[in-house]
Backbone:
């Protein structure tokens, strides 16, 4: 089997790195007169996936998850993670040095109040914290008589001797065929919104928004086609794009220069000073704007309007070309997934597969499409107890042999016409009654979301419990959201829409999300069923309100060997049979004969 080209299985960190790195950081903090330092897992754009040069939390602690933070004091340190990473953090981090804390139940602000003493100076990098995040830390420090101190340069960077270079991947143009809207039209929409808001300009800090506005893509971040940079869009006049000039070919520069003045990131301060001196009212995205930028405007005399990101909402509502592209990408991807599942069904029972060999095979099936640009994230391929870790990442060290029981694989692809994300859980051999019960309850929750009908204005938080009720009925639950937004040849995780307890954004027609309830029996096995869905209108005779529902976009067989049919209602069984019939119709034209034959059996009516 050929090697996977987009994923690495090398373990980049070890718990043992914590001691020397923590010692080095503490020595640097002492030199700077600081008693502590806050280390978030993010970059200057608040990205979930960051370039290697911004993996400061991983360098310090060994933790490789996508969300977390640490606080380091002279005598103690803590690392904060959410429910997805409670197992992983104890495997990757020396917990004798960093005490694991729950990021939601016991956030950094609470820890500061209990562990920081009056008079202490706690440092933070204002490039890596949002305005609201900084406020919470400041309030916590003030409450116990300590102070939060912004650093001019990150102390980790000063002691990280082999820090990777800042990325300089080439900027490419995202063709209108796929984008569905010219960049000029997007800029006009933004400027019209600024006029309505009586704002003079908006500072675009989210790199995804920068890519979307100017119809450009890049490669500065692994598995997400992002060109890192900032932009300023004024209410009137030409926008400014702050991006390293070495990323542009002559042709790309010429095309983008028609839309915006291109400048180096180092002169962003000059532009902010100019706006401040003009007493401009400048809009910032509260979720991604660094404290450093907000303070710069205010210090220069301007007014910072920090709030929800209206550009994110524009980007979240997909246009006709993006929707059609996604359907095409999912049909192609569904065929690749079906080819993999057919192969897995034949080979897994023989006992020679591993998590890595399965991951490689799935990527190979996607590469065989001829149009794969990248995977959309490192595949989560878990056998047995590893499947019970929601965000498990296989490495050479952790690689398990796939034996009888359960295997879960959560994966996705980047195609120019769409980004995919799909999870399937398969039985190897005969599943236990408990496995079938839990799988079927997860399936019932999945179907509840897929068939949900709701009035305009409904948020993801209002329907999140639909997916949980079959588990709640027997005293079970799962510790992650039911669904996240997804980009169009952009990030596999996109806001602001989500189906979760924290999903407060109303769902709108054209938004894409995931539908992925799960169940995890820690130390034994895990289950997740994930498809992507599209918000669409629903028409009812005599309806008194505008109603929405979901179109399912992902098509690949759901393992019938794990389904306890007796737990399904007549309507749920009908949904599953219809879904499998659609899967055959949509993906079969892309499949070879061997896969087609397997598909007939795998999608049989029950």
Residues:
């Amino acid at each position: 089997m050929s090697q996977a080209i987009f994923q690495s299985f090398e373990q980049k960190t070890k718990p043992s790195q914590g001691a020397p790195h923590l010692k080095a950081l503490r020595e640097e903090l002492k030199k700077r007169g600081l008693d502590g330092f806050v280390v978030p897992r993010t970059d200057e754009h608040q990205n979930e996936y960051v370039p290697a040069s911004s993996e400061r939390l991983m360098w310090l602690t060994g933790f490789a998850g996508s969300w977390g933070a640490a606080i380091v004091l002279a005598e103690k340190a803590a690392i904060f993670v959410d429910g997805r990473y409670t197992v992983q953090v104890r495997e990757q981090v020396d917990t004798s040095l960093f005490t694991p804390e729950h990021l939601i139940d016991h956030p950094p602000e609470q820890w500061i109040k209990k562990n920081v003493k009056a008079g202490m100076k706690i440092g933070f990098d204002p490039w890596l914290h949002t305005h609201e995040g900084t406020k919470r830390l400041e309030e916590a420090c003030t409450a116990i008589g300590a102070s939060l101190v912004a650093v001019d340069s990150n102390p980790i960077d000063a002691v990280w001797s082999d820090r990777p270079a800042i990325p300089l991947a080439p900027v490419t143009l995202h063709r209108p065929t796929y984008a569905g809207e010219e960049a000029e039209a997007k800029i006009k929409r933004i400027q019209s919104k600024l006029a309505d808001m009586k704002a003079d300009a908006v500072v675009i800090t989210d790199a995804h928004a920068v890519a979307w506005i100017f119809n450009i893509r890049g490669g500065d971040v692994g598995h997400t086609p992002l060109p890192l940079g900032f932009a300023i869009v004024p209410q009137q006049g030409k926008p400014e794009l702050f991006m390293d000039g070495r990323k542009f070919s002559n042709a790309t520069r010429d095309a983008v220069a028609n839309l915006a003045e291109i400048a180096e990131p180092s002169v962003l301060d000059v532009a902010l000073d100019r706006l401040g001196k003009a007493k401009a009212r400048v809009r910032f995205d509260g979720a991604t704007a660094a404290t450093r930028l907000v303070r710069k405007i205010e210090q220069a005399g301007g007014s910072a309007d920090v709030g929800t990101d209206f550009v994110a909402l524009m980007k979240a509502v997909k246009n006709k070309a993006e929707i059609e592209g996604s359907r095409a990408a999912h049909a192609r991807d569904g065929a690749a997934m079906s080819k993999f599942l057919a192969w897995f069904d034949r080979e897994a029972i023989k006992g020679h597969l591993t998590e890595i060999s399965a991951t490689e095979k799935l990527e190979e099936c996607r590469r065989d499409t001829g149009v794969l640009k990248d995977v959309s994230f490192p595949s989560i391929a878990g056998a047995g107890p590893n499947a019970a870790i929601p965000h498990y990442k296989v490495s050479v060290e952790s690689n398990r042999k796939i034996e009888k029981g359960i295997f879960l694989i959560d994966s996705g692809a980047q195609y120019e016409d769409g980004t995919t994300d799909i999870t399937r859980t398969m039985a190897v051999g005969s599943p236990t009654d408990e496995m079938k019960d839990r799988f079927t309850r997860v399936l019932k929750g999945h179907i509840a979301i897929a068939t949900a009908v709701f009035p305009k204005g409904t948020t993801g938080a209002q329907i999140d419990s639909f997916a949980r009720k079959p588990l709640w009925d027997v005293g079970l639950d799962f510790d992650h959201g039911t669904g996240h937004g997804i980009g169009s040849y952009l990030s596999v995780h996109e806001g602001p829409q989500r189906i979760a307890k924290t999903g407060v954004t109303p769902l709108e027609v054209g938004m894409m999300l995931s539908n992925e309830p799960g169940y995890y029996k820690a130390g034994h096995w895990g289950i997740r069923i994930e498809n992507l869905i599209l918000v669409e209108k629903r028409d009812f005779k005599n309806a008194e309100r505008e109603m929405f529902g979901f179109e399912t976009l992902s098509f690949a067989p759901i393992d019938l060997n794990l389904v306890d049919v007796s737990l399904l209602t007549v309507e749920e069984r009908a949904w599953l049979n219809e879904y499998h019939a659609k899967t055959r119709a949509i993906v079969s034209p892309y499949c070879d004969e061997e896969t087609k034959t397997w598909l007939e059996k795998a999608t049989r009516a029950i």
